[in-house]
Amino acid sequence: MSCWTRRGLLLALALGLALLVPMALSLGAAEKTRRSVGNGHGTGVTLRPDDSHGDGHGVNKTKKIFPVLTFDFAHVKIPFEISLWVLLASLMKLGFHLIPRLSSIVPESCLLIVVGLLVGGLMKLVGAAPPELQSDVFFLYLLPPIILDAGYFLPIRPFSENLGTILMFAVVGTLWNSFFIGGLLYAVCQIEGTDLKSIGLLPCFLFGSVISAVDPVAVLAVFEEIHINELLHILVFGESLLNDAVTVVLYHLFEEYSGLGMVTFLDVFLGVICFLVVSLGGVLVGAFYGLLAAFTSRFASHTRVIEPLFVFVYSYMSYLSAEVFHLSGIMALIACGAVMRPYVEANISHKSHTTTKYFLKMWSSVSETLIFIFLGVSTVAGLHSWNWTFVTVTIILCLVARVLGVMGLTFVINKFRIVKLTNKDQFIIAYGGLRGAIAFSLGYLLHPEEFPMRNMFLTTIITVVFFTVFVQGMTIRPLVDLLAVKKKQETKRSINEEIHTQFLDHLLTGIEDICGHYGHHHWKDKLNRFNKKYVKKCLIAGERSKEPQLIAFYHKMEMKQAIELVESGGGVKLPSAVPSTVSMQNIQPKKSNSERALPQISKSREEEIRKILRSNLQKTRQRLRSYNRHTLVGEPDEDGWNDLLLKRQKIMDMDKQISRMSNYLTVPAPPPESPTLSRSRLASDPQHYVPKPTLGNVPIIKVDLASPQSPEYVSVVDEFQKEAVPLKEEDEDAGGLTMKVPLGDPKKEEQEQQDGGKEQQRLMRCLSDPGPGGAEEEDEPFLP
Amino acid sequence: MGSRASTLLREEEIEEIKKETGFSHSQITRLYSRFTSLDKGENGTLSREDFQRIPELAINPLGDRIINAFFPEGEDQVNFRGFMRTLAHFRPIEDNEKNKDPTASEPLNSRNNKLRFAFRLYDLDRDDKISRDELLQVLRMMVGVNISDEQLGSIADRTIQEADQNGDNSISFNEFIKVLEKVDVEQKMSIRFLH
After folding, report:
1. With a CB-CB cutoff of 8 Å, which residues 654-693 of chain A face chain B?
2. ipTM value
3. Where does the signal peptide begin and end (chain A) (predicted)?
């Protein structure tokens, strides 16, 4: 084991060096070639007319030997560098995880900063100038993916339940921090002995506002690894997101007026108005774009391939639009992601959903890595002016202000909370207030002419960031263990919990109504009803806005279960679209599979039932549509295999059903035969079946199983007309059963097309998709 | 309680209610004014119709059961005392109450009593068990008409299967408690009655 880790380490280092050195060299070479070749026309050195200088190649139209190989770096310089950086970041990330113990002691962010320092140092050694983290690049390209990822997957329920607390921390806490730090710094600066007299009050406040904001990137990076309980996570994280508005306003306010040296009450009043405008405006802009995205996705059923694009582009547009007006771009992004998510997920196909999820995670991950590396590089690259007093006082004040702020606010907040925040919680909240790259970038934006002490500010900011990330980031994990803070529950909720929680929600809403007390439940209920009644109709395509999502989830669970069966049952690979009876018989004798299957059925059923209830009690459910583009053919193995397993399961269930309902059936069917027959029929005919005429009231779920293009479809046809249908109405085919939606298992073996114009609902059973963060995130309704 | 229409709440009654339920003085007076506003017949008690007049309760899927929970066995009227007693279950649990008086009976808003209240909403026939049918009824109320009976039945089956430990195909109170041990009942079943 150890040799692997050492090898991994060496490999990573070797790769890193192998990249860095040529990169540095290439940067240097690029400088030279650019100078010599002129404006980088990039056509090679030969066959140029007279004006080439310095290379002494043929000048006056003398025919040269055709160049087989030329070197022209200049015109790919910028993309090349960017790609190199991204590659470096990703390889470093890979490398860290090859060294197991390291990643459990040191959080990734620290390691990445160290790598950045190394890279910067190397570049300096080589002679090339290491790049600094430009504020533009940071705010326009590196920050949005992270925030979008956070906003899209924001757990709405805990966020809305704790919104008051979060806002208190974000707004009041940040204000307190800024003024406390700024004021005391100014006082310290006035002390004789330090040569800081020149720093005025307003620059101090400006510095205070820059340094006091908790940074979402750093918090995410560190908190993700310690798996702390949901409440604390959402409190700190929510605070880091929402304090952006405060920071923006304070920053602009002080920056505007620090040249003039004084701020009047009118300015302060305008500042307050500005804060409201900035935050609410940001949220509105985000919500607007979110609704647009949801509306657009409603019509995207014919061009599935570009569905993820809408999510990204609309979100980015919302961020940029907010930035145009100096509104809070972060809040716009969060609002956009949170608003669009339930509707978009209901509209887009499963594959687009997976794509969106993975792209978001990928981009945010790369961005985060790049940010930390660049922090390290910028440290080496920047001009520094170190002042012992300033730096140490700042660090101490940051800590003190944070602790005092949290304690004071918690004291007030606890009066209004049902579940109070304990001392341990307060400690973690205070300790989790990490600063990061946003502070650095804001400092970077200062003009050197107006702020002669900018370099000192930058140095201090970097020091504080390093301090919080390294010291607090590294020690928070052992502290969490030491204090026995509650960790995140790993287990998924059982069906019982789900049912009972929903039950309690309704109960509490009722009690609130009786008391005439319009609390949290009341408004949530109202919002849910409004959503169901009006909004979903506009934004979700087709009939899905009205239909419950049960069927989709049943199938999702069956799929999951089928895949679990594969994985547990030894992974027998079967040929894709030929589910022959032979292969089925291969499965049947495997008793171990079936034994293992049964307990697993219950777990997966849990999931499905959980979702069933969620969907029916509130609104949005994940609607999955079939995906018809032939460009994304489902992976044959997986689809075919799941197909088989599902059929097998249905067969098993059907057998049970048949025996139970045999007295109702008018035409008894031989149980072992019908599945086989139907199977073979389905197997042999990959196209749609000609529909059988259905009885009016039988809700039929159709499965288009063997279509090679996609995984199973399920068509829910008669959901709307369904009434309580007695079992007698079951119809039976010679080759299969058309059954109602029975005991929870979709017993569909036959496809039938609705006669006439009734649009078939095709719900695609989704492949279970573990992915980062698990399936939990996918299935959050609007307000669960 | 008096039969006069405009009875003001007497101090002794407030004290008694305070002791029994743990509400504060101001909360009791506020809830009393709510009680009287609901009491259209002005006879000091509430009937089922009074509750049903609350519009939001009509659209609540559990509305009827909640209303029933206020009325003691077989009675059709509930007085203010009973009203408060039921509402006391939803008071937030306060830390300082836990150690106050170990000999006194459990306060109405303890976790156990909250859960028992919820349990009784499921268990209509008061046999201390949630049978499959009772569960089905609740599910049907919560889920609406779009789901078939068989689906609901399978959900109910799964729920019972998960929770049932002694194999009697129904959920007893202890099993109910066990299943909800991970849920933060203190928060989920508490209303912040403003002081």
Report:
1. none
2. 0.90
3. 1-26
